[in-house]
Every structure is written in structure tokens, then in C-alpha cells.
Design goal:
Length: 296
Amino acid sequence: MINGVVCPFFYCYGCPAAAFACPIGLLQTHAALGPFPFYAIGSLGVMALALGRFWCGWGCPFGAIQDFVMWIRHRRDYVNVRPFAWSSIIVLGGALIAAWIAVDSLFCKVCPSGSLFGAIPHRFVSPDLQFGTFFYVHIGTLVATVIAFYLIGRFWCRYLCPLGGALGLFNRLSIVTVSFDPGKCKSCDKCLKVCPVNIQEVEDIGASNSCIRCGKCVEACPTDALKISASLTRHVPRRSCPPPARVTRGPLVRLVGLAGLHRDVNDGPDPDTEVGHEEYDPRPDGIEHRQRQPEA
């Protein structure tokens, strides 16, 4: 740490102009050497609770590189890959476990952000340094990720970024979010068509672990159903169709029904009671027949 400040977005502290600490590099160092990083985790937690992945959409320089590549290609993804929300968390866990086992920050040696902002600049500003195998490993990972950026928009943010995965866990809890008003939504899905991380449901905007709060959906919405807002309470509204109409029997209907049943039961005379010279004869077919008795 240079000045005691942890950067809340993907950042390489190997950069010659670095002024802050890379959160992933710092966590790896603590995992390898100890002690437990209370300050780093606490400060990142406060930043995540405040903005969630807002940092990814508005502050991350590596995200800006991905947006630039998407702007060059001028189209949607060439390859459709099924979203996997927990892949970034798996990468984070793997990086920390590898650092603990190897007692070294191994992830930093293959990190494409470190390639772009650390390894390549040092090649020009520090010509006296010896550049070994890991420099070329950096170049290889950077080339591979740039190709992935071109095929799949924000590929690193969606599937591999360990910091973005950690920040995304706070998207449903953060103070600043993208709120959705289902009453204004016309289901045109224009917001989903411009989403750089390919969110599939309008209700997941702002709440999904993948949402980077870039605001492109807010700009695309023609009815202002989406907006960037701040709130200490969180409620995720849902688009819903009105339930089908149900026919219910109120008290008056039930009372009339009971009255009709009572009338039907008492329509026929008592079989043991003589009515003139006629006898009540109930038949199994439910048809009432009256027979005249012969006179004595």
C-alpha cells in the first residue's frame, strides 16, 4: 500500500504511476503472508455497500478498455455464452487459495490488467529491468482477453473479474442502485438490448450480481421506468400480469342457495301423511308420481 487507500475497482499497483493499492493483490499478499486484512476487507465492504458494482461501470480503467473494444466492433456479441453468476467468485477463491499455498501472488503474474497497466509500461520506463518468462505470459493473457472482449462484450467483467464478483454480492444491498418502476414499463426490452453484460430480465437490472450500473439501460428506456437512485431500503419490484378473474360466492349468494336447498327438501309431502285420497310415491328416478287410491 502506497498511501493506505484501497482502490475499489480493478487496478494494478505494479503500474509506474500507481497511487493506490490493488485490492486483489493486497488480499493475495495477506493470504500468503498474513495477518488477516481487516482494514482492506472493511474498506472494500464500505465502498461496496455504498455503490455495489457502480465502481465497475464508472471507475474501472480495464472496463473502459472493454467498452472501447465493443465500440469498435459495432454489434452485439459474436458468441452467446450462458451467464454464470458465481464464476468470478470461484476465480477469487482460487486466487486466494493459490496465494496461500504458493506463498506468492500468482494471480498477479497472469492478470491481464497487470499486463496492460504494469508490465507493458515498465518495458518502456524501466529499460534496465530484466523481463523474464512472466512478462511474455502477461502478453499472452492480454492478447487472449482482448480477443474475448471482441467476441463477448465485457467478458472479463461478466465471467472472470474477482473484484467485480465480490462487489456484485452487494448489489442488492447497496445504497446507490438502478431502480425499476414496473408501472411505467412497456416491455419493449430496449434496456436489455443495450446492456453490455447481457442481463436477460428487466427485474435483474440493478439487483443482479452481473449488473455494473453503467446507466446505458437508463438512457435507452423511453418511458423512464429505470433510473439511478439512492435508498437505504431495498425492494425489487416485479413485472406481473393481473391475476385471472375468479368467481366468488358472496354471503348473499350463499344465503340464496341455502334457501333454495331448504325449499327443495320441503317441496314433497311427508310420505306418512295422507293428502286427500292421494299417496306420495317417491321413485328412484327422481320423478314424483301421485297415485289415486280406490274408494272404499
